[in-house]
Amino acid sequence: MTRRKPGREEVEASPVVERESRAPVEAIRAAAFAQFAERGYPVVTVRDIMKACGLTQGALYNHFKSKDELLHDIITSTQSELERQCKQAVAGAGDDPRAKLAAFVRIYVMRHCRLRVEALVANREIGWLDGERVADIRRSRRAIRDILVSIFVDGVKRGVFEPPQVDGRNDLKAIAMALLDQCTHVSMWYGPGGDLTEEQMANLYADMALRMVGAQPFPPT
Amino acid sequence: MTRRKPGREEVEASPVVERESRAPVEAIRAAAFAQFAERGYPVVTVRDIMKACGLTQGALYNHFKSKDELLHDIITSTQSELERQCKQAVAGAGDDPRAKLAAFVRIYVMRHCRLRVEALVANREIGWLDGERVADIRRSRRAIRDILVSIFVDGVKRGVFEPPQVDGRNDLKAIAMALLDQCTHVSMWYGPGGDLTEEQMANLYADMALRMVGAQPFPPT
DNA sequence: GGCCAATATGAATGACTGTTCAGGGGGCTG
DNA sequence: CAGCCCCCTGAACAGTCATTCATATTGGCC
Question: What is the value of pTM for the model shown?
Answer without folding.
Answer: 0.91
